Amino acid sequence: MNKNSYRIIYSKARQMFVAVAENVRSQTKTSGQSEASTQTNIDNTESQAFHQLWQVKALVASISLWMPLAPVYAGIVADSAANAANRAVIGAGKNSAGTVVPVVNIQTPKNGISHNIYKQFDVLAEGAVLNNSRQGATTKTVGNVAANPFLATGEARVILNEVNSSAASRFEGNLEVAGQMADVIIANPSGINIKGGGFINANKAIFTTGKPQLNADGSIKQFTVDQGKITVSANPNS
Q1: Poorest-pLDDT segment among 1-15, 39-53, 144-158, 222-236
Q2: How buried is 72 (Cβ within 10 angstroms: 0-12 exposed, 13-18 middle, 19+ buried)?
Q3: Dihedral, CA atoms, 25, 231, 223, 160, nearest 10 degrees?
Q4: What does the pLDDT read at residue 11?
Q5: pLDDT digits over 104-146, tens only?
Q6: What is the mean pLDDT of residues 13-38?
Q7: Does residue 1 sit within a domain?
């Protein structure tokens, strides 16, 4: 698991926001690129949220309970119109405080990339888990999670979370990758509002308002950015 502190900067080359080490400088946005808040730190104190993220205090382990999850409460809803191979199965676990937390069984990777399509993808204060484990794993967020049945042929190197919605995604809690560490991408053309969120067990994290374009082999060709904005602000409760 990464132990360093990270902050979010705008990558001119990728035309998207990425989580990077604190000593990396951001690049200025040019005309025509997605708008974003001028505040690039996730919290008032530089990278405070990510310090809390990458140096997570130990939680009392609780056994994850797999249960149906009410879509509105969860904040994460699969797109029923998407191809079956791109529809993640969303269940739930409980954290040490007994709060229900979304646990997502990501879909089978193609060329190492698990492409999941949602109608809603909000990571709220209680956080969420992306299950990238073939044999079950212990998480910081919900304790133990069962093996993901979609990963019989191997875990994902990249977890692509594409959102088809007219509303921006909210990112206010920790998003944890259970099992094998992976890159995490959140792509919502309608925008992403980041307020004190972070990542656990993610190799790299990318936010974009681009529409992902994939090659026939499942690899990512590009992101087409036509609209949306990414805003980054402090979490008043942190």
Answers
A1: 39-53
A2: exposed
A3: 100
A4: 63
A5: 999 999 999 999 999 999 999 999 999 999 999 999 999 999 9
A6: 47
A7: no
Q: How many CA atoms lie within 13 A of 111 on its CB side?
A: 10
User: Cβ distance 43 to 27 under 8 Å?
Assistant: no
Tokens representing residue 90 in the block:
């969303």
| Three-state SS annotation for 26-64 | CCCCCCCCCEECCCCCCCCCCCHHHHHHHCCCCCCCCEC
More confidently predicted of 61 and 200 = 200
Q: CA 59 to CA 216: how far, in whole Å? A: 42
Judge whether 22 lies within some domain: yes
Q: How far apart are CA 89 and CA 111, in angstroms?
A: 20
Band (17; pLDDT cuts 50, 70, 90): low
What burial class does residue 56 get, using C-beta atoms within 10 Å of its C-beta: 0-12 exposed, 13-18 middle, 19+ buried?
middle
Domain interval for residue 88: 6-233
Partner residues linked to 185 by β-bridges: 160, 206
CATH number of the domain where residue 178 is located:
2.160.20.10
Residue 238 covered by a domain: no
Spatial distance between the Cα atoms of 26 and 11, rounded to a whole number of angstroms: 7
